[in-house]
Amino acid sequence: MKWKPWCITGLCCLGVGLLCTGIAVSAGALDQECLAELLNLTDRTDTVTESFSAVLVDVDDADVIVQSGDAVEIQAEQIHPDEYAVSVAGDTLQITQQTDSKNHWDHWMSFGKTSHATITITLPETYA
Fold first, then answer.
1. Whole-angstrom Cα distance, residue 79 to residue 83?
2. Which of 6, 53, 54, 60 could link 99 by a cystine bridge, Cβ 3.0 to 4.6 Å?
């Protein structure tokens, strides 16, 4: 059996694959901002004016940061608007983020630097 034609064919396929990969990367295949636009991920800021005495946070896969500040404010970054809600019910501030896509195959895969949902809760130190 002659190995030379098979080796040449394999090297040609490898070269074409590397060429296609280079073109895809240079066209923006690893651009996470573009991917966020395609997935309809947005940044939101909610200001709560109602009074509350407790905070309930129910999130699936977002990072939650609690910090002190001047006013009650909730900032959500890289989050789908249909999966995120802020409300005050029964004297409780409720922040929910429920994803339907966590069982989808692309939820568990990432290429390059990925953006992750982050919810930042700002509460005044004197809030009671």
1. 8
2. 60
Task: Look at strands 54-59 and 84-89 and give their pairing.
Answer: unpaired
Residue 48: Cβ-neighbour burial (10 angstroms; 0-12, 13-18, 19+):
middle
Under 8 Å CB-to-CB from 39, ≥6 apart: which residues?
80
For the stretch 12-56, pLDDT in tens is 999 999 999 888 877 766 666 666 666 667 788 988 888 888 999
User: Which SS3 state, helix, strand or coil, does residue 81 take?
Assistant: helix
Distances (CA, A) of 30 to 23, 102, 117, 121, 124: 12, 21, 18, 30, 39
Question: For the whole model, what pTM was predicted?
Answer: 0.64
User: Quick check: 88 and 32 in contact, CB under 8 A?
Assistant: no
